[in-house]
Design goal:
Elements lengths: L9 E2 L2 E2 H8 L3 E5 H16 L6 E5 L6 H9 L3 E4 L2 H9 L7 E3 L6 H9 L4 E4 L2 H14 L3 E6 L27 H13 L3 E7 L10 H21 L5 E3 L17 H19 L5 E4 L3 H4 L3 E13 L3 E6 L8 H5 L5 E3 L9 E6 L8 E8 L7 E4 L20 E6 L2 E6 L4 H4 L6 H6 L3
Parallel strand pairs: 3-18, 4-5, 4-11, 5-6, 6-7, 7-8, 8-9, 9-10, 10-11, 13-15
Antiparallel strand pairs: 1-2, 3-12, 12-13, 12-17, 14-17, 15-16, 18-19
Bound molecules: pyridoxal-5'-phosphate and lysine.
């Protein structure tokens, strides 16, 4: 781009102050090029290195129909976790054989939907779900390929709300032999189900490969036990996602190969040692694909200094568009996009505009002196921001702009105040008693 203002922050090659002017704030900005770069790293460092392996994108991190098409064109599979995510994939024309359907409490209706679309894999989370899915598949005359989600009993170092691999978790089938063996038997005996293997997911935003090694060892040992006791041959091992990203300069993220090489080496060593066939391995990163590919732009409003205490800089969004600081104490970095050349001489607290003391986006941010109208760019908001957005205080959810090369396109419209009333079409009738 020419005539770039030198004091403006550029993201994926584009002047974000101009984007804020053109589309308004708060604004999610997502770079297609950065997403594709991540997908291609997975391809060269994992898929090409280990033929037969598969990569899925965990759509809960960020989903739109355009995102489905990007992921589809990169040859990835898609992890969905609800009828709503599946519906989005269906509407985007995502190939259903590449969909992996998760969820710890899928409804019968969601299972029927998965069957009617013949999704490639259903990851069954509890024994009763085997019966529910068998019934849905039988009714449709379908055979569904499944993986059983098991609890690897390892603790990933992360916020406790996003740990899933420990023994005490709502996700997956416990490894207690009487439970897992009964589930496997039931699955194998279900005429409309084909048990391909197992799935585990340790947790999210993990920076250590050791937990993946431990989980693979645990589940491969399970495979050996099931081969001995039930004659089961495990064809597939889905190792979940969870790869950590850089939120601030304190974080030292790894390439995906840091995790996948350790996973693959352990799978092959275990297969050798336990005399098992090497299963086909799937990974399911979400945050690692899209997290650093997104930023959020805000406009600064009220600046309030409490002498001897702190300066609150309030922006025009907050908790509804990024709930992670309030929910997990997540720490974000940010830059003042229209003053990128100025020294950061102050430390401020970036507050959201909700009627909630806990609505603080960043507690301590070094900035130049700030004033109303400045544009703040919060970094690494591509994952679990837009997808977790809500309407607290009836704030409309922001638009999403997709950057591709030097093009900027509105991918998701800004919600309007009228949109907020869309589900209240009977308000008049309720008021006048006619309903
Ligand atoms: C089953 C499953 N797979 C994949 C993911 C993706 O996790 P992340 O975005 O941390 O890679 C999650 C979420 O934690 C998950 O529950
Ligand atoms: N929402 C979480 C990640 C959830 C992962 C789903 N199992 C986050 O923002 O970190």
């Amino acid at each position: 781009m020419n005539n770039q203002a030198s004091n403006h922050f550029h993201f994926a090659g584009q002047d974000v102050v101009k984007l804020a002017g053109a589309y308004g704030t708060p604004l999610y900005v997502v770079s297609e090029d950065l997403i594709r770069q991540r997908c291609r790293q997975v391809k060269t460092d994992f898929l090409d290195q280990y033929p037969g392996s598969r990569a899925a994108y965990a759509s809960k991190a960020f989903l739109s129909m355009a995102m489905c098409r990007i992921i589809e064109s990169e040859g990835f599979y898609l992890d969905v976790v609800s009828g709503g995510e599946l519906y989005t994939a269906v509407q985007a024309g995502f190939p259903m054989e590449r969909v992996i359907f998760h969820g710890n409490n899928k409804s019968l209706e969601e299972l029927e939907m998965a069957v009617s679309h013949r999704v490639g894999r259903v990851v069954v989370d509890h024994p009763e779900e085997i019966d529910m899915l068998e019934a849905a598949a039988a009714a449709a005359g379908a055979t569904m390929t499944i993986q059983l989600r098991v609890v690897p009993e390892v603790e990933g170092k992360t916020h406790r709300h996003i740990m899933t691999g420990q023994k005490d978790t709502k996700f997956g089938i416990p490894l207690a032999p009487e439970i897992i063996e009964a589930a496997v038997k039931k699955a194998v005996e279900s005429p409309h189900l084909d048990l391909a293997g197992f799935h585990f997911h340790i947790g999210s935003n993990l920076f250590e490969q050791e937990v993946y090694v431990a989980a693979v060892e645990r589940v491969m040992t399970l495979c050996r036990q099931l081969q001995e006791n039930l004659g089961l041959t495990v064809r597939e091992l889905n190792t979940g996602g969870g790869y950590g990203i850089q939120y601030t300069t304190e974080d030292s993220p790894h390439p995906a190969s840091y995790y996948t090489d350790a996973i693959m080496a352990t799978v092959s060593a275990c297969a050798d040692r336990l005399n098992l066939p090497v299963p086909q391995v799937t990974i399911e990163p979400g945050r690692w694909i899209v997290g650093e590919a997104g930023i959020t732009l805000y406009t600064v409003g009220a600046v309030k200094t409490i002498p001897g205490v702190r300066t609150y800089v309030s922006v025009d969004g907050g908790l509804p568009d990024n709930i992670r600081p309030a929910l997990y104490g997540a720490v974000y970095g940010a830059v003042v996009a229209n003053k990128i050349d100025r020294p950061c001489s102050e430390t401020v607290t970036v507050a959201g505009k909700c009627c909630e003391t806990g609505d603080i986006l960043i507690w301590d941010l070094k900035t130049p002196p700030l004033e109303r109208g400045d544009v703040l760019a919060v970094l690494s908001t591509g994952a679990y921001n837009e997808s977790m957005a809500n309407n607290y205080n009836r704030l409309p959810r922001p638009a999403v702009v997709l950057l591709t090369g030097d093009q900027a396109r509105l991918m998701v419209d800004r919600e309007t105040r009228e949109d907020l009333l869309m589900r209240e079409r009977r308000a008049e009738e309720i008021a006048n008693g006619s309903l």
